[in-house]
Amino acid sequence: MSDRTTHWDNVYATKGEAEVSWYQDSPATSLAMIRAANSDHDAAIIDIGGGASRLVDALLQDGYRRLAVLDLSANALDVAKKRIGKAATTVDWIVADATTWQPTRTYDVWHDRAAFHFLTDPDDRAAYVERLRSAVSPGGQVIIATFAPDGPEKCSGLPVQRHDSASLAAELGPAFELVETRSETHHTPWDSTQAFQFSRFRRRGS
């Protein structure tokens, strides 16, 4: 078990769903950007680092049928499964590190809120992007949300790499074109604020 896996399993074993800074009761920006990326309810969507996020609940309620959630922590995914109930059987739950995972299929939408910014090592970011490129279909869309340049320098006791759309574009490379970017002020459960940026890219090709 990697140090990253140990860290996140411990977080979700010792804290409640709403006791972490990234908790959102309603993931409105993520949901709006996924709708904008692909409104087809048969679109294959993967949420990277989804953990216990309520995005999968919102997507199911919205009518999306081909969903996958990937996270390092089995504990985090178990929280989401129990919350969703019977509908959890329709979701592909993947316990894996996005830097070492070997995708077995492709997706129309790749969504990541607050996972990529934990990759402070350039080699880890390159490994993540390699998996992303193999998993996103031509014409598919990539949504990555990170702390903005004026956002926090740490999260959950770990350093982060803050980004804007330009730095993300440089990480993804010329095969991906920037479609839109949005800013979000996230309110934590204890009423502090965090500056996030969301960037949406389209994989070139048809």
Automatic annotation (TrEMBL):
GO molecular function, one term: methyltransferase activity
Ranges that cross the membrane: none
Pfam families given in the database record: Methyltransf_25
Record keywords, A-Z: Methyltransferase, Transferase
SUPFAM superfamilies: S-adenosyl-L-methionine-dependent methyltransferases
One GO biological process term: methylation
InterPro entries in the record: Methyltransf_25, SAM-dependent_MTases_sf
Methyltransferase domain residues: 45-140
Record's protein name: Methyltransferase family protein
Record organism: Bradyrhizobium huanghuaihaiense
